[in-house]
Each structure stands twice: as structure tokens, then as C-alpha cells.
Specification:
There is one protein chain. By secondary structure, the protein is of the alpha/beta class. Helix content is 41%, strand content 15%. The strands form three sheets. Strands 4-5-13-10-11-12 form a six-stranded mixed beta sheet, with helices on both faces. Bound molecules: pyridoxal-5'-phosphate and zinc ion (ZN). Pyridoxal-5'-phosphate binds next to α10 and α14.
Length: 413
């Protein structure tokens, strides 16, 4: 892999060989970041060559990814999700230009598929036969699905609160599922111990530096879909911090390779009941744990695993931090559904809720252009969807009762 130079520690700067099962820095325990040779990448791929490609998945960007050119790519079709110009939603929110990147259409219905597909590719290179992770739910279901398609065994640790939709995916994909009676923090700790003990391939967020490399493909797609004319802002919900760090890495890769000539600012959106990364970024103080007090289970992360990269991404991009309440998240679920036909889970729409809030608070100018990433599909968590949208008209099959119900609710004239 001539385009990959090393795995650099974001804390002490030590460089390590980017072997397939590399984890954290052996010197200081810091998180590693994959370093590329951009002048080599530039020689291998031009924008024109890229846009001619017929591979409509994240692997169309293989020159930017830590995989061999003729790699054994996982089977599921991950990536190349649609980017919708959302004019009616933009008008409702009061912003000039808004695009919705619907990553809920991925095979297991969240953006986590990008990371899990990469984990499976690297597990293959490492010669592993079993992959494990702990997750608030989506990393788990995406690992289980992508691993199943490639014939790997999985051991998956989820906190007991994980929504049924996500747990059912795990069971269908044949994972061994350990539902931990405790917080995500407890779940993570137990999984780390088990992974150590049994030597499984580790797909834990922020331990495995390759996951972010998969996630960054969302930015590569956004750029290509916008003909490399970048928006002012990219908004995304933040839990562990790997997704936003991946978004930033993808943008910087494109910039370094000369594919784009300006970098958008990030909008980091967290729940007002759990925002340790935003607090640390805004106040420039070390990260302090927080309670996990939000319906958006995928971003209810009190002790984030990747604060270093996430916070530097927000600061480097000169970004915006904003928090939204559970009510604002539920409202964004309705708004996206009703103006765009896009159905997101609570954490999936949190980025869009944050765009609305940022406009209201004057944190971003009204004449901005924004891409908002919807990170997970609403069918994963139907209880909260019903909470957001309410119940239908319930009646027996009789026209007079239908007329009566319409008279009350304002049906057709
Ligand atoms: C995991 C996840 C996020 C947040 O990603 P982090 O890397 O944990 O910050 C946001 N939305 C959904 C739907 C997710 O599954
Ligand atoms: Zn280090």
C-alpha cells in the first residue's frame, strides 16, 4: 500500500506501522490516525477519473482508503447514499441552501456501515475469524450485518437500553449478543476486557483507527455529489466523536489532494442532556464525563471514546457547537419526514435539528449553504417515531364514522 505512510499518534506524535490490527499508541495509549502520501494519491487518481467510475459504493474512493487496490472488499453495498437538495425544508428552517445526505439508506440503515465495512476488510487482512465491538446499537448492527455477509463470527456488547429495532437486527444477522445491564461506559469496559481475553478483531470506536477512514467516505461522496463545490457548513450529530472526526478527515483529504479548494466548517450537534464534546470544545477545557440523558440513544455517550479527534476537528474547521433538546429532536423527525420524505431515528436527525437551532440562535448566517447528514434510519426506533408523530385516526370500517372523524380533525373538504 504505497499511499499509506503510517499510523500517527494524535497525542504524542509517534509514528507506527499501519498493520491491519493496529489499535492505540503503544507508547502513550493515544488514538492513532492514518497518514497518507497525497502526492502519490494525486498521481493515481484525478477528479475526472473518479467521476467516470461505475463502482457506486464507498470503495469507489479506494485510493483514499487504507486498503490494497485489488482488496477483498466486503459484500454489502455500503455508501453512495443520496444527497437531496431540500428547498422546502430550507425555507422552513430559514436558511438559503440546504442538502440532506441520507445515510440511513445504507444496508443496515446507518452511517456506521461505512466503518463496519472497513473493519471487515481489515479483519480479513489481519487473518481474523471473529470480530467484536461494543456499541450504543448501530455500530453493533452494522458490524453484525457486514460480518455476516463476509462469513465472520461476531460478539457484540450493547447497553440494555438499545432499541428493539437494533437488537433485532443483531439477532437476525446471527451475532452473539451480550446485553449489558449498565451504561454504554460499562458496556465498553466489559467488551474491552473480553476482546483482550479472547483476541478477537477489535471494532471498537476510537480504538481501531481504520473505522474513521471508512466514515470519511461520506465527505468524499458529498464533495463528488456537489461537483466539488463545497458548502459553507456540514452538520452532524456527535456521540463518541468518530463520525465528525471522519467527516473532517475526508474533507481534509480532498483538500490535500487538490480535489476541493475550500474546507467547510463543521456544525457539531449534541443533545442538551449529554454534550461533553461540545462543552469541552466550546470552553477549551479537558473533557468531563456527563450523564446520558436523551432519547437519542446513538449519541447518548457520557464518556466519549474519541474526544481528541472530534474536538480538534471542530476547532480546526472553525466550527459551531450547538445542543438540541429531545423535543427539538422529535420535531426534526417530523420536519424531515414531512418536507423531505426522509425518516431518521432521533440521533439521525439531530444534526438537522442543530441546523435549525443554529439559525435561530444566529450562530450561522441565513445565507449559508449547509449539508446536513442524516445518520440513521427511523425504523430502528419506532417507539420514538410514534412519540414524534402521534397516533393515526382509529375507527371501525364505517363511512359515517369516517365523516365524523374528519369533521373533528379537518379532513378533506
Ligand atoms: C453512532 C451514531 C452517531 C454518532 O457518531 P459518533 O461517532 O458516535 O459520534 C450519530 N448518529 C447515529 C445514528 C449513530 O449511530
Ligand atoms: Zn502516543
Amino acid at each position: 500500500m504505497k499511499h499509506v505512510i503510517s499510523a500517527v499518534c494524535v497525542r504524542c506524535g509517534a509514528e507506527h506501522e499501519a498493520v491491519p490490527n493496529v489499535t492505540t499508541c503503544p507508547k502513550c495509549g493515544g488514538i492513532l490516525d492514518i497518514k497518507y502520501d497525497y502526492s502519490y494519491i494525486k498521481k493515481q487518481l484525478t477528479k475526472e477519473q473518479l467521476t467516470q467510475r461505475k463502482e457506486y459504493s464507498m470503495w469507489r474512493y479506494r485510493e483514499f482508503l487504507p486498503v490494497a487496490e485489488e482488496g477483498n472488499y466486503p459484500k454489502l453495498r455500503v455508501g453512495w447514499s443520496p444527497l437531496y437538495k431540500a428547498d422546502r425544508l430550507a425555507e422552513k428552517i430559514g436558511i438559503k441552501t440546504l442538502y440532506i445526505k441520507d445515510d440511513g439508506i445504507n444496508p443496515t440503515a446507518s452511517m456506521k456501515d461505512r466503518a463496519s465495512a472497513m473493519a471487515v476488510a481489515k479483519a480479513y487482512e489481519a487473518g481474523a475469524d471473529t470480530i467484536a465491538c461494543s456499541s450504543t446499537g448501530n455500530a453493533a448492527s452494522s458490524l453484525a450485518g457486514n460480518a455476516a455477509a463476509a462469513g465472520y463470527k461476531t460478539f457484540i456488547f450493547v447497553p440494555e437500553r438499545a432499541p428493539k429495532g437494533k437488537v433485532s437486527q443483531l439477532m437476525i444477522f446471527g451475532a452473539t449478543v451480550i446485553s449489558v445491564q449498565g451504561t454504554y461506559e460499562d458496556t465498553f469496559r466489559l467488551s474491552a476486557e473480553a476482546i483482550d481475553r479472547w483476541g478477537w478483531y477489535n471494532r471498537n470506536a476510537a480504538i481501531n483507527p481504520y473505522l474513521m477512514e471508512g466514515k470519511k467516505t461520506v465527505s468524499l461522496e458529498i464533495a463528488e455529489q456537489l461537483d466539488f463545490q463545497m458548502p459553507d457548513y456540514v452538520a452532524i450529530s456527535v456521540g463518541d466523536g468518530c463520525s465528525i472526526a471522519g467527516v473532517w478527515k475526508g474533507l481534509k483529504d480532498l483538500y490535500e489532494a487538490g480535489f476541493i479548494d475550500r474546507l467547510p466548517k463543521l456544525i457539531s450537534v449534541q443533545a442538551s442532556g449529554c454534550y461533553p464534546i461540545n462543552r469541552a470544545a466550546r470552553t477549551n477545557t479537558p473533557l468531563e464525563p456527563m450523564e446520558e440523558n436523551t432519547i437519542a440513544d446513538s449519541i447518548a455517550v457520557g464518556v466519549p471514546r474519541n474526544p481528541d479527534k472530534a474536538i480538534s476537528a471542530i476547532l480546526e474547521s472553525n466550527g459551531v457547537t450547538v445542543e438540541v433538546s429531545d423535543e427539538e429532536i422529535l420535531a426534526a423527525m417530523r420536519l424531515l419526514g414531512r418536507t423531505c420524505g426522509v425518516f431518521g431515528e432521533p440521533a439521525g436527525v439531530t444534526g438537522t435539528a442543530g441546523v435549525k437551532k443554529a439559525v435561530e440562535l444566529g450562530l450561522i448566517p441565513k445565507d449559508s449553504s449547509v449539508v446536513s447528514i442524516v445518520t440513521g434510519n427511523g425504523l430502528k426506533d419506532v417507539n420514538n417515531a410514534i412519540k414524534a408523530a402521534g397516533e393515526p385516526i382509529h375507527i371501525p370500517p364505517q363511512m359515517d364514522l369516517l365523516l365524523e372523524a374528519f369533521a373533528k380533525s379537518g379532513g378533506p373538504q
